[in-house]
TrEMBL record, chain A:
EC numbers on record: 1.6.5.9
Enzyme class: oxidoreductase
Membrane topology summary: Multi-pass membrane protein
Main localisation: membrane
Location in the cell: Membrane
Name this polypeptide is given: NADH-quinone oxidoreductase subunit K
GO MF annotation: an example: NADH dehydrogenase (quinone) (non-electrogenic) activity
Pfam families (UniProt xref): Oxidored_q2 (PF00420)
Native source organism of the sequence: Nocardioides cremeus
Transmembrane segments: 6-22, 34-52, 58-83
Amino acid sequence: MTLETVLLVASALLAVGLYGALSQQVVVMVMMGLELMIAGVLLALGGFWWFLSPDPSGQVLLLVVLAAMTVEMATGFAVATLLHRRAGSDMTDMATELHE
Amino acid sequence: MSTVSTVSTVSTMGLVDVAFWACALVAVAMGVLVFVVDSMARATYALAASFVATGGALLLMQQSYLGVVVVLMMVMEMAVMAVYMVMFMGMNPALMPMSMVHSHRAAIGVAVVTFVALGSGAVLVPWPERRGSPSPDVTEALGTAIMESHMLVMMVVGPVMVATIVVGVLLSSSRTRYDRMGDDLDQPALDPPALERREERR
């Protein structure tokens, strides 16, 4: 386990998540992609912390990323619920009111 | 004596490496499976497994608190997601085949380019040496940091979480008192509250 390998795994997670966030149509699946991307960021930050500068400030940054993940998830679910109520759908392609 | 300690250090390092690669493999493979399996329930379980493995990798880097929080949070989150699927999709999520994608090739291209760019950066950048060493109790150090030197972070994260709760409730509720009684709550109610309606039905 070295910094390079941790970062490689984190890049793989981020890339897979990016694919999901770009390609999926269902809002919940898009959120899963975003979550995977944040997991990659978490892992990379953990690697930086452990291999470069293991003092508590880095961990506080990790905590902030974790909080961002929670906010993303809760708000995402709420927006998906709103979409479902208003449009009866949970697909991103049908939420185009701003485009029209 | 030194030979014994060297051997034990090497075997510990070996174990950590094996555990890390196992976690890494599970995290990435399950992450890919999320978008390969044909039902949303399986995707949810795959994502949960991927996150548990990510938490495991964090644990290997001595982040006992954050690693455990990641695992606990994601398991709960996937439980919420399962409830959500049953609530809104009205289906047996395990049996419903599903493939709903757009711009498939472009997305794969962007993902591969991202991985190559980030991965080559990770390998080619001459990373500096480690500075300092972790405190004996990493969790205690984190707790002290957010309650002392980095208290501002905690003071910001707290209200953000409360705001998230308010936003979540507001966005997802179908009909609030503002819908019924106007923005200033001074109009007569548009429709009887749920209790009265229930009594009328009787």
